[in-house]
């Protein structure tokens, strides 16, 4: 956590504390982060397609991010950082909770992956720019959404690719992602605050104000047959690309 005497633009201390308290179970696929383990393959499928389309790579290649720098903001204990590293990227993960960074560092070392992790306010870390910037299910937890998006944009290199995902603010997400998910124990209580969810239109406006333009967008839906999957239905959750405006 950043020094409590220094005003923080985007980090909410109570949010960092909530997720930091879950750090020990982050890599347990049946623990409090079980939903993230189910969501991660869906995200990765979208990200891989976006990478191939953006850079025109070989869709059969095992390391499409070779020679590229990747930044995951709000990385938790590294569930996305590790597969990005295996795709060939030089990966940096940033999170608001020191406990998450400790768990992420230990897991990466155990997996033999050279990932750099830091905790604190993104703009205060001096990380430079990256070819790929990702931030999954994070913007709904930050204190200042325009400041957060502007910080993401500053860390995206010219010609780079950004991939973002977040819950939509709809009646369906209030019922299922907050009410039912917490009541059934699918996510820990207090994880989501529906009023902080952001619609695709609102997100697009924030990105445009930061000099970015949105690209491919998909919904992340659930069905008893398919489980979590990409779809054209944005009602619950959506994932999309962005890049610098021409």
Q: What would your notes on this structure say?
A:
The chain is built from seven helices and eight strands, in the order ααβαβαββαβααβββ. It has an eight-stranded mixed sheet. Mean pLDDT is 88; it is low at 1-8. Helices cover 34% and strands 24% of the residues. The chain has helices at residues 13-20, 34-55, 81-86, 98-111, 145-154, 171-183, 200-209, and strands at residues 69-73, 90-95, 116-119, 130-136, 156-167, 212-223, 227-231, 237-244. The relative contact order is 0.15. The protein has one domain: Vaccinia Virus protein VP39 (Rossmann fold), CATH 3.40.50.150. It is an alpha/beta fold. α4 (98-111) links the parallel β2 (90-95) and β3. It catalyses: a 3-demethylubiquinol + S-adenosyl-L-methionine = a ubiquinol + S-adenosyl-L-homocysteine + H(+); a 3-(all-trans-polyprenyl)benzene-1,2-diol + S-adenosyl-L-methionine = a 2-methoxy-6-(all-trans-polyprenyl)phenol + S-adenosyl-L-homocysteine + H(+). Keywords: Methyltransferase, S-adenosyl-L-methionine, Transferase, Ubiquinone biosynthesis. InterPro entries: Fumarate_lyase_CS, SAM-dependent_MTases_sf, UbiG_MeTrfase. GO terms for molecular function: 2-polyprenyl-6-hydroxyphenol methylase activity; 3-demethylubiquinol 3-O-methyltransferase activity; lyase activity; polyprenyldihydroxybenzoate methyltransferase activity.
